Amino acid sequence: MFFLKTTIRALLLTSTVALSGNCNGNTEKSNMPLLLAGILASSPPPGIRFKAMAGASPLQCGKDITGHSAFRTTGTESFSEGIVRTFHIAEIMPISLKDLRLYVSNLTLLEADGSETKPASIADGKWQNGSVTLLDFEDHSGDCTGTSDTNSLIKVPLPNKLYKGIRFEVGVPEEFNHQNQALANSPLNVSGLAWGWAMGYRFLVAEFVSHDPTANGNTAVFHLGSGGCFMSAPYACSRPNRAVIDLEPPGGYNPMTQSVKLDLKALVNGWDIRAGSVSCHSENATTCASPFANLGIDFSTGNLSGTQSVFSISNE
């Protein structure tokens, strides 16, 4: 954290000068300790920061979300058609978030010289165990039904430097995916993210409800997890369904100044809940094909296919 260290050194020097006395030899009190405390409290913690959005609208429980983003047309559609294409989420608006949680693993930072760095994840006893991190964006308010605790950070020791990019998986590694959830260490002991019928985990849970007067109460439910699983030991699944997210923005990636954006609107691109609720539990090709493709996963095989459009690097 070069910027923070440099700032602290400068403030310490200023504090020393202030305490050394004035022209009359009197020692004056300094406010530097308070300034230092403020800087330390406001500086971002070391790690990979995530933020959840729907287009340009921040995702927040208890608040109607429109999904607004910059208006653009192709020149062939009417203004109203452009509004629908640009603003709506699953063809309706507004929505209200119900749940958004995901497991992230296999974090890799891509160096400018082509090498790769795998930072050591911190086991904090709650959100990450050293291999897997749980990101939780719901806070039990509004239509959200989980707990009030949230987490949007992968805690890892990082220097303040520019990387070529970042890579991570959305999913629980196979060696942890078929354990007894009740006996697992946190964050793999969350009952709401365990798939008992498949002896595995939900890698990503995204749910919202329509507050659009024309489709009020219709829901969208997306649960990503391994598919084609055998229901008895030794447990195995024929479709892994783990998304590998590779982000290499043109200007590089600095974890101290940039965050990873998860776009719910992009995840459900291709869904339409105007006529009724839609759900995907990683088994139905009719409803799962679009969000799987948006994550860069081939639904039929569970392997990587194509380019994902759900995650990006944000400068905000």
State the end-to-end distance: 19 Å
Pattern of helices and strands: HHEEHEEEEEEEEEEEEEHEHE
Biggest sheet character: 8 strands, mixed
Task: Compute the average pLDDT.
Answer: 84
Question: Which percent range describes the beta-strand content?
Answer: 25-35%
**What's the gyration radius in Å?**
23 Å
What layout of secondary structure does this protein have?
Elements: H1 2-19, H2 32-42, E1 47-54, E2 57-58, H3 79-87, E3 95-110, E4 116-117, E5 132-136, E6 153-155, E7 165-170, E8 194-195, E9 200-201, E10 204-210, E11 219-224, E12 227-229, E13 237-239, E14 243-247, E15 259-263, H4 264-267, E16 278-280, H5 285-294, E17 311-314
Parallel strand pairs: 1-15, 11-16
Antiparallel strand pairs: 1-2, 1-6, 3-4, 3-5, 3-7, 3-10, 7-14, 8-9, 10-11, 12-13, 15-17
Helix pairs in contact: 1-2
